[in-house]
Every structure is written in structure tokens, then in C-alpha cells.
Amino acid sequence: AMTYPHTDSKKSGLATAAFLASLLVGGALPAQQTLRISEILLDPVGPNAGNQIVEIQNVSGQDFTQPSFWTFCVRRLAFAGYPVLPSITIPAGGVVKVHIGASGTDTATDWYLPGIPLLLDDDEFSIYKTTADPSTNPGGAVAQWGDPNFVEDFVSWGLGAGILATRINEAVGAGLWPSPTSHVTPLPAEGNTLAWMEYGMGPGVWHEDVTPTLGLPNGPMKPLRISEVLIDPVGSNVGTQIVELQNVSGYDFIQPAF
Fold it and tell me: pTM, whole model, 2 decimals?
């Protein structure tokens, strides 16, 4: 893949319109999502235990209350330990901070998962729209965790979960992740977060946020802009038209698989 240094512009013949379209709309899109993993505080200032946060956002355009037994999946938990999402309404556009390994009272803006182990530098996290109750129907839940049709969202970072990964192949099958070897890198510095740019899928739409916005929408950050178009060049137009792209993100950009 081609790397676009920040502030760089690249010229592209109009024959690449299909590529541009796939980049802007994300290629083959999965089914409409309701919840997105939108920001991760992997390395908080001070101790990590009990202070890590995974932020989720309701991107559906309408209020959402988990309808059955939707679950959070962390690769190092036994299947029966995957926690069910609280049945608390998230308003349209609302953001919830999920406190990893911490105890507390669940509210519309803060959920607590004391049974989730510490997230590692090489790890993954996913949301499943399970309909089977893991506590009373573990076989049904296990079957759904292995079915790409039940994956709601997924992110893998560092080197991923490696041989212990249990969900990345399902995320690939769901069209939410490009490949089992794709992960978000580099990892953020202490106190910074990994933040979703509020568009697209895959590692390329995540970046390090040096001013975290946990509990608030991240705001869209589209790295590429169409900056200039040569529609009618001197002489023949065939093969000489140009569309210029500019990387306006402030960091190097590599076209993600999605």
C-alpha cells in the first residue's frame, strides 16, 4: 500500500475513480452498525489496573437498548465469562465509557466490567449481538460467537491476540476487519488513547489521540481530501485528466484495506 505523508498531495488519473470510491465509502460495507468501539484508553497515567477504558458510541441514529444478550468479548476470557451488556438505553449519538476491571454502578454514560482482565499491549476487543444467554444457553452463545453474522464491532491492536485470538477471523468474515494479520499500530503513549476517526473500518481509521475525548464523540477526522481536479487538460483529455489528493490529517496515512 502507498503511504501518503502528512500535508502531501498525490495526483491520480481518473481511471482510479473506483479506488477513490472504495476509499471514501469503505469498500464492501458490512450491515448497518448500531454500536462502534470508538476510543480506547489502554495505558492510563499511573496504574493500568481498574483504570483502562473502552468507549462505545451509538451510531445508529436512534436510541438503543440492547435487545437480548449482546456481549463484550475479550480473547483471554472463558466463553462463559463474556459479560452481557447492561440493559441501559444509549441515546442516539450517545457515548458510554466501559471501565475495564473496575466496579461501580452502571449508568447511561458509564458501565463497569470488574470481571474483565487487564487489556494488554497486544490484544483485541469486540462486541457481539448475541441472542443466546451465555449463563443458561452456553452452547448457543458459543455457536454465535463463532458466527460472523453476530459480530457488531471489533478492534485489534499491537500484534493482536496471536494464537489466543478467538474473534479476529469472525470480524474478517463480517467485513469489519481486513485480515487476521492486521492490527492498529503504533500504540499510544501513556495517557493518550486510540481513537476511531468516525468513518470506515480497519486499522487505518484509528489514530493516537493526544487530547482524549473519552465520554464525548471523537468528531470525524477524514485524512484525505480531493484538493484539485484537472478536467480539461490542454490537448486530448484521454489519459491526461488528473485528480489531486491531499493528506490533511497531520500524520502519515496508508490506505487501509477498508
Answer: 0.76
